[in-house]
UniProtKB/TrEMBL annotation:
The keyword Hydrolase applies. It comes from the Bacteria. This is alpha-L-fucosidase. Pfam families: Alpha_L_fucos, Fucosidase_C. Its EC number is 3.2.1.51. Keywords: Glycosidase, Hydrolase, Signal. PANTHER family: ALPHA-L-FUCOSIDASE, ALPHA-L-FUCOSIDASE-RELATED.
């Protein structure tokens, strides 16, 4: 082969990659939506949300209410959430504890994070089995966890973590620690700010051009995140937010243009229609034909809520089954923790993370890098409709009612399914004994069935309705862990 022909063939072979690298995304939803969500996100399956900020100082809300909304509840004398809270509960709590004239902005003087150890946080996060972390760089109160000059300038006071009491780049330090573990790092960013003077004056062009967009650029340019997770989009249209221009900049010009992942919260009516992956929040039973993510706290609040008791936290079993439920429907679970103002992750949250991580150390093969199968779960007969009590936010315990503790007349999920190539994973909330039928699972002559984490032999045979497993009785010591059990079925369809 002469040199000219060889070079021509080499050029043709490189053409698709070069063309893709040089693709220019236009500030239109048609163009933006054409960009595939980077594969790492759909493979990750499990992430940790972290809500941490000035609201972590009062750290209080009625049960079933978001504590990170403390400033809004306080200044508007209204509260919404589960359990029909009285509208003035946060105002009355604040008045009784801090005094009627104590400003929310004074909490920045107490947000010292003096016990903050980002390496310890990163260690716990890694041990949870999570593949990515999303930290609140700035919530709706406008306080920034990095040295954002725009934040302090906008509010005319020290309103970022370096200028205020912490005197530290909290976001930067955690980013460094997390990236050392190989876990992906992302940032939550609220598009709107409740009481930003420019935003309140409805000078939206100035707000976006001189405050919001510069902050996003600073985050992306300086810290090179794997994800930007926007929120607070519902107040304005994507045109007002100039969302398409911002996304086009991230996709075309930013230092992470080829790897960054974004969500769908970019303007009124945009959620679950445009952007990157789709999002749900404290919901049950969702499924989409696009990468998606369910976010929720371990209790009912994202920020740390000192008012929540042990019974308000989801059990480790519920959290594991939540993860399995979401992944079997093709989604990711973004599970939130809320550190306190001193910089400590509450022990109960650490314990839950480690319990999930222990389960994933045995069963992670059935979670990571998998895709949804032709059906998400095998149900028994009965009513499949989950009925949330007390409000619109579905408690994580809903999955317990759908599996091991059903109400009379309601259907039960006997198994969840995930798939990887020709391998099928059937995850059982309870260990079956003896003959166990998996309907519509078609084995091949060379099919093998194993139980992850166990060397027990699992017999099987093909039957009219699917595959019938023969599961031996096991003692408690012989069970491969807790909460849920994974059967690996090769060459199945």
């Amino acid at each position: 082969m002469n040199t000219t022909i060889r070079n021509l063939l080499l050029g043709l072979a490189l053409l698709p990659a070069t063309a893709n690298a040089q693709q220019k995304y236009q500030p239109t939803w048609a163009s933006i939506d054409s960009r595939p969500v980077p594969a790492w996100f759909e493979n990750a399956k499990f992430g940790i949300f972290i809500h941490w900020g000035v609201y972590s100082v009062p750290a209080w809300a009625p049960k079933g209410v978001y504590s990170e909304w403390y400033q809004y509840w306080l200044q508007n004398r209204q509260v919404s959430g589960n359990n029909n809270p009285q509208k003035d509960m946060v105002y009355n709590y604040h008045k009784n504890r801090f005094g009627d004239n104590y400003s929310y902005y004074n909490f920045a003087d107490q947000f010292k994070a003096e016990d903050y150890d980002p390496a310890a946080w990163a260690n716990v996060l890694q041990k949870s089995g999570a593949k990515y972390v999303v930290l609140t760089s700035k919530h709706h109160d406008g306080f920034a966890l990095w040295p954002s000059k725009e934040a302090s300038k906008a509010f005319g006071r020290p309103w970022n973590a370096v200028d205020a009491a912490a005197k530290r780049d909290l976001l930067g330090d955690l980013t460094t620690a997390v990236k050392k573990t190989g876990v992906k790092m992302g940032y939550y960013y609220s598009l709107y700010e409740w009481y930003n003077p420019v935003y309140k004056a409805k000078d939206y062009n100035k707000y976006v051009d001189e405050h919001m967009f510069p902050q996003i650029k600073e985050l992306v340019n300086n810290y090179k995140p794997d994800m930007i997770w926007t929120d607070g989009e519902w107040e304005q249209t994507d045109t007002t937010w100039k969302a398409r221009d911002i996304i086009a900049w991230m996709y075309n010009e930013s230092p992470v243009k080829d790897s960054i992942v974004i969500n769908d919260r970019w303007g009124k009516g945009i959620r679950q229609k445009h952007g990157g992956f789709y999002t749900t929040e404290y919901e049950a039973g969702a499924s989409f034909n696009r990468p998606w993510e369910e976010c929720r706290g371990m209790g009912f609040s994202f920020g740390y809520n000192r008012n929540e008791d042990i019974e308000d936290y989801n059990s480790a079993q519920a959290l594991v089954l939540l993860l399995v439920d979401v992944v079997s429907s093709g989604g990711n679970l973004l599970l939130d923790i809320g550190p306190d103002a001193h910089g400590k992750i509450p022990p109960i949250m650490q314990e839950r993370l480690l319990q999930i991580g222990k389960w994933l150390s045995v069963n992670g093969e059935a979670i990571y890098d998998t895709r949804k199968w032709k059906q998400a779960a095998q149900w028994t007969s009965g009513d499949r409709t989950y009925k949330q009590k007390g409000g619109h936010m579905a408690s994580g315990e809903y999955i317990i009612k759908q599996t091991i503790d059903p109400d009379p007349g309601f259907a039960v999920k006997q198994a969840f399914f995930t798939t990887k190539g020709t391998t099928l994973y059937a995850i059982a909330p309870e260990m079956p004994e003896g003959k166990w039928l998996l309907r519509d699972v078609m084995p091949a002559a060379n099919t093998t069935v194993t139980l992850l984490g166990s060397d027990k032999k699992i017999g099987w045979k093909k039957v009219k309705d699917g595959i019938e497993l023969d599961v031996p009785r096991m003692t408690a010591k012989e069970l491969p862990g807790d909460y849920a059990y994974t059967f690996k079925i090769t060459s199945a369809k």
